[in-house]
Amino acid sequence: MPDSKALAAIPLIPSNTAPPAPEYPWPAPYKAAMFLSFDIDAESAWTSKDPAHAARLVTMSFGGYEARVGTPKLLELLADLDLKATFFITGWAVDAHPAMAEAVLKAGHEIGHHGYHHLLPDPGDPFIIEEIERGFEALQRRLGVRPIGYRAPFGEFCEELRVALVRQGIVYTSSFRDDVRPYRHRLADGKQGTIEIPVTASYDDWMHGLSARFSPRSIFPREHVLSMWKDELDEVRDWGAMVTTVLHPQVSGRPMRFRLLREFLTYAKSCQDVWITTGAEIAANYQRHEAATA
Ligand SMILES: [Zn+2]
């Protein structure tokens, strides 16, 4: 049970004081948008839960699938559909699987920052700054890339992280769950933060498609997930808003999930009012309209 002192310390203001998302139009002829993004955690998805997993070889093999099969297959799919996406890659995954990361870059996709060891950026965590710096360093050293986009491991944030990312030149982040359009963060001191491209759990494939020894559960079939993904997209098209996918090659690179994703993306492409694009493009669209209305 929380004690009364801890309860009294909860501020009586919204946790996010950013103004409402501006209704900037999407580039013509589009009426809605899809931020097509993937998170490559590889084995760091597992070692971030427990470093001792490094010696549990079958647990690690879930992540290893990303380099062996999942990522190459997804790159094939994106090439077939002529789509460009953003891949948020942990520094560890880039160091352990440089050829996989180089293939993503070579295919023309955007590379985003996703921490180094995929550690949860919890308030007060001593690794927050080190995770950011080591992630940048690995992407620069292996790929020659300085990313402008960041997605938090485990999708968690704190004020220290928001401030540090602005200081490091990150332009957009994509982790918050509180909108259906991009908006600009306002830091606790009132200064401007990053542009947020919000996400929703319905497009996180991990929720529906992964079962492991430490989270044994049934996975959802194609019909179930496809109906959810289509409904969310179709309603968002009516709203003129956007969706963000959070797809993992160790999930969506599996044959059944791959088939499902191909069907969904083929459907999304057939909706000619949906702008399917990278985070960098969505952030640039936001910046153009923000500058024009300033
Ligand atoms: Zn991740």
UniProtKB/TrEMBL annotation:
Q: Using the record's annotation, list all stretches that form the NodB homology domain.
A: 56-277
The biological processes this protein is annotated with in GO are: carbohydrate metabolic process
For this protein, the record's InterPro entries field holds: Glyco_hydro/deAcase_b/a-brl (IPR011330), NODB_dom (IPR002509), PgdA-like (IPR037950)
Question: What CDD domains does this protein's entry cite?
Answer: CE4_HpPgdA_like
Q: Which GO terms describe its molecular function?
A: hydrolase activity, acting on carbon-nitrogen (but not peptide) bonds
Which Gene3D superfamilies does the protein's record reference? Glycoside hydrolase/deacetylase (3.20.20.370)
**PANTHER family cross-referenced by the UniProt entry:** POLYSACCHARIDE DEACETYLASE FAMILY PROTEIN (AFU_ORTHOLOGUE AFUA_6G05030)
Entry function = Is involved in generating a small heat-stable compound (Nod), an acylated oligomer of N-acetylglucosamine, that stimulates mitosis in various plant protoplasts.
Tell me which family the UniProt entry assigns to this protein. Belongs to the polysaccharide deacetylase family.
Q: What is this protein called?
A: Chitooligosaccharide deacetylase
